[in-house]
Amino acid sequence: MNPCNHHSVSIKEMQKLCVSLVPIFNHLQPTEMEKIVHATRSASYQRGEQIYGAGDTSAQLFIVHRGLVKIFRLSESGREQLIRLLEPGDFMGELALFSGSPFDHFAVAMEQTELCVMTREDLNAFIEQHPKISLRIMEEFSRRLERAEKLISCLTSEATEQRIAAYLVELADEHAANSFTLPMSKKDIASYLGTTPETVSRKLAEFQENGWIEQSGQRNITLLDRYALQNL
């Protein structure tokens, strides 16, 4: 087999899997999905590499196939505020895609990351053919808005240890298990929760001393007393 052909097939299979992971597309029939696959291209990013930045404009939808992407803003003082992490199946760039406005945030690969990329023209054409895609996009917007509102409420009304405890419980819910691996460093958790890495480390140590959690390694957490964490 020609190695170039093998490489081409591998990329196309990657794109097919990538598209099938995305909630806005996974309701389509195989033949319809195949059309979307042919309309995407692949892009790879190294750890720490910027995918786009604040002020950039784009007419593309980015879908995470492998890896992890950090979405964040920078304050006037240069402090980083983490907005969310994107995992395989998540997408980004949709607001700039529809509005044409520049990005107000940054997207950076946190590890070796592979994306599938679709142009505005192709996405709009698929939405016209399959209006349900736009409903799925709106559902995702609603979920993101709900998470953002919860985070804002948490940052303005709860003490730091309550925010950290609530974050751990939220992760357990997402994993449907009391044992999980923190998806990011303590520095990024601190950015997300509006505190400092030192405070995150100190509070986790206190939770462990109280018998509420168990830590192993750098990021492995087991909730031992969920009730205590929820009722801080």
TrEMBL record:
Domain HTH crp-type: start-end pairs: 158-227
UniProt entry keywords in alphabetical sequence: Activator, DNA-binding, Transcription, Transcription regulation
GO CC, one annotated term: cytosol
An example Gene Ontology molecular-function term: DNA binding
InterPro entries: cNMP-bd_dom, cNMP-bd_dom_sf, Env_Response_Regulators, HTH_CRP, RmlC-like_jellyroll, WH-like_DNA-bd_sf, WH_DNA-bd_sf
Domain named Cyclic nucleotide-binding: residues: 24-144
SUPFAM superfamilies, sorted: cAMP-binding domain-like, Winged helix' DNA-binding domain
SMART domains: cNMP (SM00100), HTH_CRP (SM00419)
PANTHER family registered for this protein in UniProt: CRP FAMILY TRANSCRIPTIONAL REGULATORY PROTEIN (PTHR24567), LISTERIOLYSIN REGULATORY PROTEIN (PTHR24567:SF28)
Designated name of the protein: Crp/Fnr family transcriptional regulator
Organism annotation: Ammoniphilus oxalaticus
